[in-house]
């Protein structure tokens, strides 16, 4: 009796059947839940939950019917977008959004770098680590539109509230990812700089910075893209930018202008995506 036959005797009948099917080329991975009864129970429970959740939703079907008609009008407006009737408002809103986006990204990244350094456990002392992690947690707790409402209340309507909102959100986003990249850096360069007697700044500049800089540039461009899209959202609550123009056009049912604004946003986001891809290749 061969060792393979001896080993097969230790297997259960279903496992021997799976081994035989694997030898014939008919193999499939094991299910997450082995028991067929448990699989039926889980599937029925999930289906029952979905049905009960759907029945608990109070749906106003007449309002849905009205909304479907308006939705069809809005979708149809993309076939004939109006770029000319309110071109001045559109260009002003776009320029304001681009200015907000660039300014907030620069400020946010500049402030996120020291916070990210302090939030990296392998290079920061424990009190600094907890303090910077607290800043990141606070920044990431609230969604941008909630922060925008707060800053609009504090500083009034306009792009200032938008810049502060986007910069505040950028700090948490960039600092968290930067800290994780620093914690994942190779230890050998860090130990080599320490062994030569280099100071803390030399340690950061020659051991940490070369490893995280390409990632930092890519994340900064990605955050620039996010901030432009968020500028269109926070403008709805009065934080300036193209979002305010879009909200105004929707409120007056000027769907042709709304479609033109959305198409411009899509074009700018696509351009930003291609630019960030080119820069990432250049930095690698």
Automatic annotation (TrEMBL):
Kindly list the residue ranges recorded as spanning the membrane.
38-57, 102-124, 145-171, 259-279
Q: Does the keyword Transport apply?
A: yes
Looking at the UniProt record for this protein, which Gene Ontology cellular component terms does it annotate, in alphabetical order? Answer: plasma membrane
According to the entry, every stretch annotated as the ABC transmembrane type-1 domain falls at 94-276
Query: Could you tell me which CDD domains the record lists for this protein?
Result: TM_PBP2 (cd06261)
Query: What are the protein's UniProt keywords?
Result: Cell membrane, Membrane, Transmembrane, Transmembrane helix, Transport
Q: Where in the cell is it found?
A: Cell membrane
Q: How does it sit in the membrane?
A: Multi-pass membrane protein
Which molecular function GO terms apply here? ABC-type phosphonate transporter activity
Tell me which stretches of the chain form a coiled coil.
Answer: none
Q: Does the keyword Mitochondrion apply?
A: no
Instruction: List the NCBIfam families hit by this protein, alphabetically.
Output: PhnE
Instruction: Please name the PANTHER family in this protein's record.
Output: ABC TRANSPORT SYSTEM PERMEASE PROTEIN P69 (PTHR30043:SF1), PHOSPHONATES TRANSPORT SYSTEM PERMEASE PROTEIN (PTHR30043)
Q: What is this protein called?
A: ABC transmembrane type-1 domain-containing protein
